[in-house]
Write a structure and sequence with these properties.
The structure is a single chain. The protein has 217 residues and is α/β, with parallel strands linked by helices. It has two domains: 55 residues; 135 residues, Glutaredoxin. It is 45% helix and 15% strand. It has a seven-stranded mixed β-sheet with strand order 2-1-5-4-3-6-7. α2 links the parallel β3 and β4. α2 crosses α6. It is elongated and about 120 Å long.
Length: 217
């Protein structure tokens, strides 16, 4: 009699297990169907996005800033330890901004030309700024840069970019680069080609783009 009861209990337990498994499989199957539906929807969304926002090759260089664009803001420290922000010149001065690196032949020529321009321009109307990188931003690197600039006889402010943010914001691909920024913060001229930067009359061209005249010595 006891054996019969045990068999009945085992059979009942087996039936419950089968029933529970069947229900579980039903819900799992439903979830899988739902996941497949979501996956299908995501694929359709990706197809639509590719049509609306065509992807550009990662190797393509960024499009340079254009005349009329607002110059990206920055706040960088000068070699003398003074913080200088582009917005501080808004409404008061035009800005001639140079991006360069040490020991670059083209950069040396442009640095020298801007020094000559800096001495001749009206300091109440124009500010000359240059931005460069220093390897590791170490005291030794800063000292080496100061020695280099002293040798080149550069007296206008030199700002230090400690990371890639300035280069990314200004979409720098080649060096050197010059941007002429008006008092409203808009770019009046972009000079990033060797044919523009290494010309003998670069100083006169900068005065012209600023709407000013180079005074005869």
């Amino acid at each position: 009699m006891l054996r019969k009861r045990i068999i009945i209990l085992l059979a009942f337990g087996l039936l419950l297990y089968v029933a529970f498994s069947t229900v579980s499989l039903y819900f799992i199957s439903a979830k899988l169907d739902r996941l497949k539906s979501v996956e299908k929807d995501l694929k359709e969304v990706k197809i639509i996005l590719r049509k609306v926002i065509p992807s550009s090759p990662s190797s393509s260089p960024p499009e340079p800033l254009k005349v009329g664009d607002y110059a990206p803001r920055f706040r960088l420290k000068s070699l003398e330890g003074k913080w200088i922000a582009l917005r501080s010149f808004r409404k008061s001065k035009n800005v001639v901004l140079l991006a360069w690196v040490p020991k670059c032949g083209s950069c040396e020529k442009v640095l020298s030309t801007l020094e000559s321009f800096y001495k001749k321009c009206n300091p109440k109307e124009v500010e000359v700024l240059s931005v460069t990188r220093v390897g590791g931003n170490t005291p030794q690197g800063i000292d080496n840069l100061k020695s280099y600039l002293k040798k080149q006889k550069i007296t206008y402010p030199v700002l230090i970019s400690e990371d890639d943010s300035f280069g990314l914001d200004y979409r720098i691909v080649t060096i050197p680069n010059i941007w002429i920024i008006d008092k409203e913060g808009k770019i009046k001229a972009v000079m990033n080609k060797a044919s523009d930067l290494l010309r003998d009359d670069l100083e006169e061209v900068i005065f012209e783009k600023l709407g000013m005249k180079l005074k005869s010595p």
